[in-house]
Amino acid sequence: MPASPLVRAALIFAVGLALLTGGLALWRFATPSQPATVSGAVSSSGAALIGGAFELVDQDGTTRTPADFSGRFMLIYFGYSYCPDVCPTSLSVMTQALDLLEESSPESAARIVPVFITIDPERDTVPVMKDYAAHFHPAMVALTGSSEQVAQAAKAYRVFYAKVEDESAGDYLMDHSSFFYLMGPDGNYVAHFAHNAPPDEIAEALQGHVNE
């Protein structure tokens, strides 16, 4: 069941406060042709080696491929639902940016699909992803799959991730890169944003790219 506006607002406020006071670490990120950024966006003047084919399953159990998003922009984030801080903060930043864009330019916002791809398919099953995605943007598409399918998607987007055992909790965390990727209507890379970039800056950059 989708979260109520009050619950969603409370979650966004909580993780926003964590972003301001928590001193979150920057996560590793590297591509052959693009530098990492602390905030804002980096766009490509040439062909960046980011993006490609994937076949995953959304939170409703429907198989999805890039062809399903043809003609629309995808704003993609890789993470996992058990992430204690960076992922919920990042997805809240994504939600706030899209909400701001919808307020200023509904037509531009309607052309962008927020996409969350797990890097922890062992725990992020379809029901888990459905429940988790409901806390963020209502149009979010949350994707999971087999370990092999997730690895293929992560490789296509140059995403780093690795399991890290948490002995104190008897469980594990996932170390991973933390960026938003904007993919164009043709499926090609357009830009990427740091996970802690201000939502208003992301919204402004998104509008610029959509209206190019």
How would you characterize this protein structure?
This protein has 212 residues and is an alpha+beta fold. The protein has a single domain (5-210), classed as 3-Layer(aba) Sandwich (Glutaredoxin), CATH 3.40.30. 33% of the residues lie in helices and 22% in strands. It has six helices and ten strands, in the order αββββααβαβαββββα. The chain has helices at 5-21, 86-104, 106-109, 126-133, 147-156, 199-210; strands spanning 41-43, 56-57, 63-64, 73-79, 112-118, 141-143, 161-166, 171-176, 179-183, 189-194. It has a six-stranded mixed beta sheet with strand order 1-10-9-4-5-6. Strand 2 (56-57) and strand 3 form a beta hairpin. Residues 1-40 and 42-46 have low confidence and may be disordered.
Helicity range: 25-40%
CATH architectural name: 3-Layer(aba) Sandwich
Low-confidence stretches: 1-40, 42-46
Q: Helix/strand/pairing class, anyone?
A: alpha+beta
CATH class: Alpha Beta
Main-sheet strand order equals 1-10-9-4-5-6
Strand content: 15-25%
Give a quick set of tags describing it:
Glutaredoxin; six-stranded mixed sheet; globular; alpha+beta; 10 strands; two-stranded antiparallel sheet; 212 residues
What is shown here, in short?
The chain is an alpha+beta fold and 212 residues long.
Topology:
Blueprint: H1 5-21, E1 41-43, E2 56-57, E3 63-64, E4 73-79, H2 86-104, H3 106-109, E5 112-118, H4 126-133, E6 141-143, H5 147-156, E7 161-166, E8 171-176, E9 179-183, E10 189-194, H6 199-210
Parallel strand pairs: 4-5, 5-6
Antiparallel strand pairs: 1-10, 2-3, 4-9, 7-8, 9-10
